[in-house]
Amino acid sequence: NRLHAVDVTSSSFRLVWPKLLSQETDYYTLEYAPRGDLGKKRTQQVSGVHTTLLLSNLAPETTYEVALIPESNVHYFPPQITRVTTLAEEISPAQVLISESGPRSFHVSWAPTLDSVISYQILYGPLPGNSVKLLEVDGKHNSTVVDKLTPNTTYLVTVTAVYKSGKEKSLSAKACTQEGESSS
User: Fold this and answer.
1) CB distance 96 to 115 below 8 Å
2) Statement to judge: residues 67 and 140 lie in one domain
3) 103-132 pLDDT tens trace
4) C-alpha angle 99-105-106 in degrees, rounded to nearest 5
5) pTM across the whole model
6) Contacts (Cβ under 8 Å, ≥6 apart) of 150
7) Could you tell me if 56 and 129 lie in one domain?
8) Residue 7 exposed, middle or buried by CB count within 10 Å (0-12, 13-18, 19+)
9) E-only strand ranges, 56-142
10) Please, which pLDDT band fits residue 183 given cuts at 50, 70 and 90?
11) Among 100, 96, 101, which Cα is nearest to 122's?
12) Sheet strand arrangement including 52-55
């Protein structure tokens, strides 16, 4: 039972270790750095009562060397060392699907939905043309209906994910409305 990581994401992981220290004055020194770039080493002191710690603001797809050094006045404990590789950064939207197309509406859905996305902006307008409308959807949702459209028209639909970091990622798809019944 030794130092290991759980809940690994693209930017964080949680370290868990066995309870080694018992004295109130004891503490751990935690050192971590991207492998091969030890100049970026970060050091943190952790109270001896802790057996877990969340490390965040890490780089995606990076292997970190982690050393937990128990600092005790009573016993010597060897440093606990582990290596953790963060996941690749997921990007949303990775796909945009158009379905349930009618004369005046269609359904737009996208994937994946990520915790790091605050909202999605759906821009749509007829092709060719430059009259564009905007629909904003909460980041927890992965679909919406676009309506009040013109029958038998091709629309360009762009879904933009707005990340908490302020970054944006967009993906477009074309949608065609069905021919409507002629209403005189």
Assistant:
1) no
2) no
3) 999 999 999 988 889 999 999 999 988 889
4) 15
5) 0.60
6) 104, 126, 177
7) no
8) exposed
9) 63-71, 80-85, 95-99, 106-111, 117-126, 133-138
10) low
11) 96
12) 4-6, 13-16, 52-55
Q: Which amino acid is at 155?
A: Y
Q: Which two tokens stand for residue 63?
A: 């292997």
Contact status, residue 175 vs residue 154, Cβ threshold 8 Å: yes
C-alpha torsion 160→164→167→168, nearest 10: 0
Q: Which amino acid is at 154?
A: T
Question: 148 and 104 in contact (C-beta within 8 Å)?
Answer: yes
The residue among 61, 85, 109 that closes a domain is 85
- The domain in which residue 32 lies consists of 4-85
Tokens of residue 161, six digits: 């994910």
| Residue 126 preceded by cis peptide, ω within 30 | no
Question: Looking up tokens 């430059």, which residue turns up?
Answer: 130
Q: What CATH code is carried by the domain that includes residue 140?
A: 2.60.40.10
